Each structure stands twice: as C-alpha cells, then as structure tokens.
Amino acid sequence: MGSSTDEKQILNAINAQGFLLIEGVLDLGFVEKTGTELLAAIEKENEYHGTTEYEDFGRVLFAPIYGGTFIKTLENEKLMRPFEIAVSKNCILYTMTSSCLSPHGSNYTSRIHKDTKIFIPNFIHMLAAMILLDDFTEKNGAPLFLPASHKNIKQPAEDYFNENAVQITGKAGSVLYFNPNVWHCSTKNNTGKWRKCLLLGMQHHWLKQRFDIPKAMEHIDLSNYSEKVLQRLGFNSEPPSSYREYYENAKKGNQKTTNDFYR
C-alpha cells in the first residue's frame, strides 16, 4: 500500500492478513545511512563472537546500544503511527534487531517460524516491523508470509506453507508491519550483496522488554533526545523503586505507576 494508508486500512490488514507493507515510510538518505551503520554493527557483533560462523550471523542483537540512526528511528512519527494505532499510543520498544542476509547466504530465519511465544486470540500485544534498507526482491531473500496465520497457534505443515505463503517484495524505505504470531521465513539471498533489514517490535508499556534498556544504554548520551523517544525506549515504564517514587510519578501520570488494566 501507499504511504498515506489510513487507520482503518492498517487495522483491517493487520487483523485479517496479519501483515501490511507501507511504501515510502523512510527517505532514502536515512535508509542509506542506517544500512551503513547496520553493517558496521554487524562487524562489531562478529568481533564479540570471534567468528562469522555462528547461527545468527547477520543479526545485531540489540541495535540501540550502537546509538546513531537506530535511536533516531524512534523519532520518525510516520514510522511509529501504525504501532500506535494497532497497539497503543504509549507503546514501548520490545527490541530492535536486524534481519540481514549475507551475499549468497541464508541463516536461521529461513526456517518457518513466528517471532513470539505469546498467543492471545483477538489481541495485539505487540506489532513487529521490518524496515527495508534495500529493495526486497525474489533474488535477494525477500521473506515469505502466510496470510492470516496469526490466528493459529499451531505451526503449518511445510507443504501447506509453501503453497499458500506470499513473498513480500518492496522498495527500500518501505516498512512491513506484521503481527509477530504470523508464520513466516526468509528465502536465500542469491546475489553478491547484503540484503539489509532493521527489525523492531513495539509492545504495550506494561509488558516486559527483552533487555533492561535504561541499563543497557547507560554508555550513550541521551540528553538530546525528546521525552517521546525516551518513553518509546521504555524509560517511563520501569517499576517504581520506592513509595516516594510511586506517588511522585502518580502525580505526573507517569507510566511507572499507571497500567492500562487498572488505571
């Protein structure tokens, strides 16, 4: 769909099909810079492992610890809008990783899988998104998604998946939003270039994040980022550490003391 997708289209697609591709969300200058920073981060991950021969080669485990455009991604209101529509205006980052395929390569994402173990019928606890940092084509590993499979907790048979899954191709700067319960897989990159993708999930603020983000990002100066970015990172969702903090935050309406279920 085009970049002007309205709220009804977003909800209908996510609820019915389980996924939605929106074109032109990010400008190509930002896409190129993010792609360069992502490859540099992959090199850092390789150094951490001491090899490129590990199962999730090509994945940056938690991109925001490298700063730069990874944090700036959370400033983009056009990108964030579908998350706020499908999940909550106060949604926070579960994680931000990558899904990249090396030249002539494939990796662990080539298996049929979904991206969460939480299954609550008719409820979106999290919305995931693939940010296309390259054109996704049939040759470079564009993923396969099985329509409406987020409604079934049971993994589909391989033959059924292969017959009914849809390959998602699109231009760099597009974003593929999807329910993390949708069954999907990557395909092999048959080109001589990396196929790059930034992957993030935004969830309800009362759910536990994959990392203790405030602690994991202590080494980064966040003073120039807006309160909204810090909220999206989960800084307002830490549990209060004392009675005093609880009541002070309650007066401010801070997420540390409010909860969609009880307030």
Give a written overview of the molecule.
The structure is a single chain. This protein is α+β, with helices and mostly antiparallel strands. The chain has one domain (about 5-240): Sandwich (Jelly Rolls). Helix content is about 30%, strand content about 15%. It contains 8 helices and 8 strands, in the order αβαααβββαββββααα. The radius of gyration is 18 Å and the shape is globular. The two termini are about 35 Å apart. Mean pLDDT is about 95; it is low at about 260-263.
Q: And the CATH topology?
A: Jelly Rolls
The residue ranges in which pLDDT falls below 50 over 5 or more consecutive positions are 259-263
CATH superfamily: q2cbj1_9rhob like domain
Main sheet: strand order: 1-6-3-8-2
Number of helical elements: 8
Strand count, sense and barrel status of the largest sheet are: 5 strands, antiparallel
CA-based shape: globular
Task: Count the beta strands.
Answer: 8
The proportion of residues in beta strands is 5-15%
CATH class, named: Mainly Beta
How many domains is the backbone divided into?
A: 1
Secondary-structure element pattern, one letter each: HEHHHEEEHEEEEHHH
- What is the CATH architecture descriptor? Sandwich
User: What's the average pLDDT?
Assistant: 93
Class computed from helices, strands and strand pairing = alpha+beta
